[in-house]
Amino acid sequence: MRLLLVEDDTMIGESVHAGLQQDGFAVDWVQDGRAAELALETNAYDTLLLDLGLPRKTGLDVLAALRRRGDSIPVLILTARDAVADRVKGLDAGADDYLVKPFDLEELSARVRALLRRKSGRADPVLQVGGLSINPATHEVTLDGKSISLSAREFALINALAARPGVVYSRAQLEEKLYGWGQEVESNTVEVYVHSLRRKLGPNLIQNVRGVGYMVPKQP
Ligand code: CA
How many CB atoms are closer than 10 A to CB 3? Predict the structure, then answer.
């Protein structure tokens, strides 16, 4: 899953960026409101983490513009402890959740997972598709009850596909979910991971849709 982090405080930005990557998210980080808008226009993100006090354009303005143009991306705002009025304004402007600084990285990760769950219309934190079971919090994967060991990128790929069974993703869309800026995308990377996932999870779980991309069917 790919996240956009908008935070002008370098120390917070660096630690959140590193922590979320550690948790298996692809994360892009920008430090002002205009850079955030440019990033949102040019990339597809699964969640936006938005500081409100930002140079060049405030987080509230970024959020309002986003919702005005009908973008339904989940938004979690990051605010200061004393800024109750800002949190209220943020939620009323279309944010889905907020966290008060300083916050715990584990809590941030958990809230992002909750937003991703809600976005895909699920309540169960564990993804189940046929005999496959994926826990996005612990990264545990089982197939017919048997534990399967996956690399971080293999996990990211099957997690993205299984979160929306029946939805076809192009190779480029999947690459976007696996890599943030500055991370070199190897050629044929999606094919390579699909191949190794099929070896570990069986040949039928990930299906090719010719000329379009890949999907996990609703009933594999
Ligand atoms: Ca700020």
Answer: 24
The Å distance, Cα 78 to ligand 1 centre, comes to 9
What spacing in Å lies between the alpha carbon of 11 and ligand 1's midpoint? 11
How far, in Å, CA of 38 to CA of 28, rounded? 12
In three-state secondary structure terms, 115 is: helix
Q: Using the 8-state DSSP alphabet, how is residue 134 labeled?
A: E
Ligand 1: centre distance to CA 7 (Å): 6
What is the structure's pLDDT at 186? 79
pLDDT tens column, 75-133: 999 998 778 999 999 999 999 999 999 999 999 999 999 999 998 888 899 999 999 99
Find the angle CA(199)-CA(201)-CA(207) to the nearest 5 degrees.
Answer: 85
Residue with tokens 């917070």: 12
Closest Cα to residue 101, out of 211, 2, 7, 188?
Answer: 7
| Alpha carbon of 50 to ligand 1 centroid (Å) | 9
CA–centroid distance, 82 to ligand 1, in Å, is: 13
Structural domains of the chain ordered from first start: 2-119 (3.40.50.2300), 127-215 (1.10.10.10)
- Give, rounded to a whole angstrom, the gap between the first and last alpha carbons of the chain: 22
Q: pTM to 2 decimals?
A: 0.91
Give the tens place of pLDDT for each residue, 125-178: 999 999 999 999 999 999 999 999 999 999 999 999 999 999 999 999 999 999
